[in-house]
Amino acid sequence: MKALFLDRDGIINVKADGDYIKVASEFVFIDEILNVLKHAKEMGYLLIMVSNQQGVGKGLMTQNQLEDVNNFMQEQLRGRLGYALDELYVCTDLEGSGSTRRKPAPGMLIEAIENNVLTPSACWFIGDNLSDALAGRAAGVQTILIGEFPPTAATVVVESMLQFRTIMHRIFI
Ligand SMILES: [Mg+2]
């Protein structure tokens, strides 16, 4: 079994400027990701979100608010694609807490790999932060970084999701 792991903010939805997405009305899809999800699904990848959400740990939002936003995302995906993400992994631990789950630590990825009996080297993790690529590498999965990064920062580095769409057919095989 193989999976496409996805960071949430900056990959599935537009990042809130220096803030957390606290309510569903703040959740805006990055349109190109829908085609990426569709292609990966067609190629047999499980779709698994892996997201740091320390806004909960900081007390800036509640666990319920976080779940409402994620439920909204899943409902929207069901409506637009006919299916939602297969699993969601979220870490609300604070940076500096020594958490083994919070990215760049690979804990959430390792849980997902074990739960779904995945072959790490057949999996990809797409993110927009160096910590995504570091977590992916530590879990033995291949990595994609979207944004301005040195070419060696991940298995694949591209500037934009739009650009990634043009090469995804060579990656998700
Ligand atoms: Mg992100």
CATH topology name: Rossmann fold
Question: How many domains make up the coordinates?
Answer: 1
What would you report as the Rg, rounded to the nearest angstrom?
A: 15 Å
Q: Within the largest sheet, what's the order of strands?
A: 3-2-1-4-5-6
- SSE pattern, N- to C-terminal: EHEHHEHEHEEH
Oligomeric assembly: single chain
Strand content: 15-25%
Task: Characterize the biggest β-sheet.
Answer: 6 strands, parallel
What is the typical, i.e. mean, pLDDT? Answer: 97
Bound molecules: magnesium ion
Tally of DSSP helical segments: 6
Determine and state the CATH class. Answer: Alpha Beta
Helix content: 25-40%
Number of strands: 6
Low-confidence stretches: none
CATH architecture: 3-Layer(aba) Sandwich
Name the CATH homologous superfamily.
HAD superfamily/HAD-like
Fold and architecture overview:
This protein is 37% helix and 17% strand. The protein is an alpha/beta fold. The two termini are 13 Å apart. It has one domain (2-171): Rossmann fold. The relative contact order is 0.19. Bound molecules: magnesium ion.
